[in-house]
Prior knowledge:
Layout (H helix, E strand, L loop, with lengths): L9 E5 L7 H11 L3 E5 L2 H6 L2 H7 L13 H15 L3 E6 L5 H4 L9 H25 L2 E11 L13 H23 L2 E7 L13 H11 L7 H12 L10 E4 L10 H14 L1
Parallel strand pairs: 1-2, 1-3, 3-4, 4-5, 5-6
Amino acid sequence: MAHQLLKGKKGIIFGALDERSIAWKTAIRAVEEGAEIVLTNAPIALRMGKINELAKLCNDAPVIPADATSVADLENLLQKSMEHFGGKMDFILHSIGMSPNVRKAIPYTDTNYDNFLKTLDISALSLHKVLQSSMKLDALKEWSSVVALTYIAAQRTFPGYNDMAEAKALMESIARSFGYHYGFAKKVRVNTISQSPTITTAGSGVSGFDAFFTYADKMSPLGNATAEQCADYCLTLFSDYTKMVTMQNLFHDGGFSNTGVSQSIIEEMEKAAQANG
């Protein structure tokens, strides 16, 4: 049910690839709640994905290509978006992450450092570039909201997550640091959402994802949060109901982040021990 939570608000959604993407779900829900949006992704992702289909579902939203590692591309995106909207914007979703080391199945202990630098640039520094470009061009209204998607591997070790763990940790730090400066300068708030493991094109590429997805679901008192539920959470942070929330890493994971072990996991381990005994 739509409540027009974002009526009159305008923003940019980065990173929608296909219907499994959290960014895709967020774009649809934002429009349902009254927002106007611009969609963007890297040129190669636009060719590979289905973003033009999404644009049609979102009242023919403009699709503006932008490599999030390129300041020139980002400034062009922001300027064209403001021209389209006829003024400044109210929100941005940063849903960007890619690791060449993960894609090439290079083990963490054998990290290719050129790949590692690309991971950091695409998955973390891109947030700094988005924020810096937005501030430079004064693209966001006061009390606007920037949300970036992250994962608990920034705080805890998950072997298959590889160098993306460092990227997410850096991105969360950027959100805090830039959130401080942007808050004092323009009352813009910056937060990250640490989402449950989610069945997306990017998430499914992590080694051992299926097993961990099941494990996290059994560990979490409420189960894993879905992409649709994450989209709804993003909308609350875009809305005026969270105007005083900034510089936070907000766990949206069914309680996983605060659970030591669940009874379900204990029982499975006991069964396995009996079977092997």
